[in-house]
Design goal:
alpha+beta, Taq DNA Polymerase, Chain T, domain 4, Rossmann fold, 4-stranded antiparallel sheet, 16 helices, 10% strand, SMC_hinge_sf, SMC_hinge, SMC hinge domain-containing protein, ATP binding, RecF/RecN/SMC_N
């Protein structure tokens, strides 16, 4: 399949995918199925017809052809089923002549297309049988190996590489095309799923952004609450400290009250008892010692009480510092840690928090100032909005007025269009009348161009009244006469050109014939000269020459005669003859080829081959036992001539022989042996080759 056909088929496949074309069925290769045994005959008979496109009728073929032409999509040959008329042939009915169409599976709807290509073909076991049926029944015969013959006797064949099967290629292409389309469909489905997943991801990201926005709003609203909570916590801690201090003071007061009450009760009890001195001298001394000891202990108690009070004061100071400073700092650090965990900020110390607080206060002031500025802008914008609302009301009023005007103009335009349609119809009628009049002279336009409409109308009315008497006259007769005269002049001019072309072509053909005749005569003279020379070398006592046989006089004349004896052209030649004499140099004693013996005929054939080789040498010549029928003297002469040609011209001769003469002059000898049903070829020495051929020549 050439590139243009491939592009055309690809374009048609694309058109079928884009548009519904029910009448386009496909190529013959796509519409048939055949077994491997008959695939080669089908390909050889169909040839390029395998890629002809089957359609239902000529309209579909024309539509597709126009599409290919417009899109420059290649070239395709169509087979419209409605226009096909395959010729019915009486096929032979025999076991050795099988109709090829019977081995093809196809839809009966395409019967005409397959009849057109395969209807007159039979499959035969060999070319001999195929040729007999071709001559007797007028059919085309083909073998299973692809060798063909037709009713005219022409035969074609040879080795065909089965790996280059067109049908297999079409099936493979269709298979991979279907696979490709499936993969494309899967790719589209995957792309659609990916798009759905992208939409889902987009929706999820949108939802995530909404949640993050809510979180930021919650963080923004949590800041004032956290600050208020911190203030409340500080106030609660202060109140708790005050309460603890008051409770301790109350406990101290209650303790002192109990001590004082006990002292008062003791003093009251002492006051109620009688005062008497009943102590002994020892008890008084002991009382004095105890009094001194009590004073000493009182002094120590006072010192311990002072130390205790100083420690309690220090403890209270430390507890106050703990509650008022360190605890607050701990709360702040915990709050910062909570804020950092929620907003992702890095942790910092107290100083950093203070600096952040100052920044926040400054930012708050800036926000307040910006808020005031924004409020002022909002007031300005509100004023502008009010002004724009007033402008909008005015514009709406103007728009209403324009709409009313447009409606009026639209009505006027409708009226004008109706009038235009009337005048257009009137102009068409007048144009038709002008066409009926035929071609008008130029002076008619100049004469009536500036005339008033009323005058033209009155003249037209009078002319129409006058023309009613000539309705039966052909109004275009003069125009048709001029047209036909012009066509006649063109055709005569074309005829003259064709006559001139015919003369040129005939002169060219005559010139080519002369050159062909000269080439044939020149080649024949050269071959005839070489034949005479070589025959003289092989047969020194004889003489040989080639003769041209003519149809006019049926006589044989020498090929080297003068040109005056060449009566007639090459078409008068009917063949070439050989005239030789092995024992005389005289021309009157020569014999024709039919009068010679077998060995002499073989020698003449070798002379002709050597003459052709001398005229146009070939690099290699193969001889198969050409010396079998030659006498010994001629075998020696042929061997010497082979050696001479090989050395002078360089032609390589490959000869098979059972005679020693060629072996003596051969550069290399090969022996072929047949052992155990196997042929073996080996290079052997010349002596062994001579022994072998001499042994074959010796009688058993």
């Amino acid at each position: 399949m050439d590139g243009a056909t491939a592009r055309g088929l690809a374009t048609i496949r694309r058109l079928k995918q884009e548009n519904d074309i029910p009448g386009a069925y496909g190529t013959l290769a796509e519409l048939l199925e055949v077994s491997d045994a008959y695939r080669l005959p089908v390909e050889q008979i169909a040839g390029a017809s395998l890629f002809h496109y089957v359609v239902d009728n000529a309209d579909t073929a024309t539509y597709l052809a126009d599409a290919l032409f417009r899109q420059r999509g290649g070239r395709v040959t169509f087979m419209p089923l409605a226009q096909l008329r395959p010729r019915q042939i009486n096929l032979p009915r025999s076991n050795d002549a099988v109709p090829l169409l019977s081995k093809i599976t196809y839809n009966p709807e395409y019967e005409k297309a397959f009849q057109q290509v395969f209807g007159k073909v039979v499959v035969c076991p060999n070319l001999t049988v195929a040729g007999q049926y071709a001559r007797s029944h007028g059919v085309d015969g083909i073998t299973a190996e692809g060798d063909t013959t037709n009713k005219r006797g022409a035969m074609t064949g040879g080795y065909i590489d089965p790996r280059k099967s067109r049908l297999q290629a079409v099936q493979s292409v269709n298979k991979w095309r279907d696979n490709y389309e499936e993969k494309i469909a899967e790719s589209r489905e995957i792309r659609r799923q990916v798009e759905l997943k992208d939409q889902e991801i987009t929706a999820a990201m949108s939802e995530l952004q909404k949640l993050e926005q809510k979180l930021r709003q919650a963080d923004d609203s949590f800041g004032p609450l956290r600050h208020e909570l911190r203030n409340k916590s500080v106030h609660l801690e202060n109140e708790r400290n005050h309460l603890e201090a008051a409770i301790k003071r109350r406990e101290g007061v209650e303790k002192n009250m109990n001590v004082f009450l006990e002292d008062v009760a003791g003093h009251e009890a002492e006051l109620q008892t009688d005062f008497k001195k009943s102590l002994t001298a020892a008890e008084e001394r002991q009382l004095e010692e105890l009094s001194d000891s009590v004073q000493e202990l009182q002094k120590q108690w006072n010192e311990a009480s002072n130390a205790r009070r100083s420690l309690e004061t220090r403890k209270q100071l430390l507890e106050g510092d703990l509650r008022q400073n360190l605890q607050l700092k701990l709360d702040q650090l915990n709050s910062q840690a909570f804020e950092n965990s929620a907003s992702g900020l890095s942790s910092g110390g107290l100083k950093e928090a203070q600096r952040e607080l100052k920044k926040a206060q400054k930012a708050l002031k800036a926000v307040e100032a910006s808020l005031q500025e924004t409020q002022a802008k909002m007031d300005d914008i509100q004023n502008r909005l009010d002004q724009m609302a007033v402008d909008r009301a005015q514009r709406e009023q103007r728009q209403q007025e324009l709409s009313e005007r447009i409606e009026k103009h639209k009505k006027r335009m409708d009226k004008s269009l109706r009038q235009k349609a009337l005048w257009t119809a009137r102009a068409a009628e007048l144009a038709k009348t002008i066409r009926d009049l035929g071609v008008l002279p130029e002076e008619a336009f100049d004469k009536y161009e500036n005339m008033e409409e009323k005058t033209i109308t009155s003249k037209l009315r009078r002319v129409n009244e006058a023309l009613k008497k000539y309705k039966h006259v052909n109004k275009k007769a003069f125009e048709q006469y001029n047209s036909f005269t012009t066509q006649q002049d063109q055709l005569m001019k074309r005829r003259k050109e064709l006559d001139d072309s015919q003369s040129s072509i005939e002169e060219l053909v005559e010139h080519l014939d002369r050159r062909k005749d000269e080439a044939i005569e020149r080649t024949f003279k050269q071959v005839s000269k070489e034949f005479s020379t070589i025959f003289g070398k092989l047969v020194p006592a004889g003489h040989g020459r080639l003769l041209i046989q003519r149809r006019t006089d049926r006589r044989q004349e020498p090929a080297d005669d003068s040109e005056g004896e060449n009566r007639g052209a090459v078409e008068n030649y009917i063949g070439v003859g050989i005239s030789v004499s092995f024992n005389s140099k005289h021309l009157d004693e020569q014999q024709k080829i039919q009068q010679l013996s077998g060995g002499q005929k073989s020698l003449c054939a070798l002379c002709l081959i050597f003459a052709l080789q001398a005229t146009e040498s070939s690099p290699m010549v193969i001889f198969d036992e050409v010396d079998a029928n030659l006498d010994a003297q001629y075998r020696t002469a042929v061997a010497a001539l082979l050696d001479s040609i090989s050395n002078e011209i360089g032609t390589q001769f490959i000869c098979t022989t059972f005679r020693p003469e060629i072996v003596h002059v051969a550069d290399k000898c090969y022996g072929v042996t047949f052992v155990n049903k196997t042929s073996t070829i080996d290079c052997v020495p010349t002596d062994d080759a001579l022994k072998f051929v001499e042994g074959q020549a010796r009688p058993n």
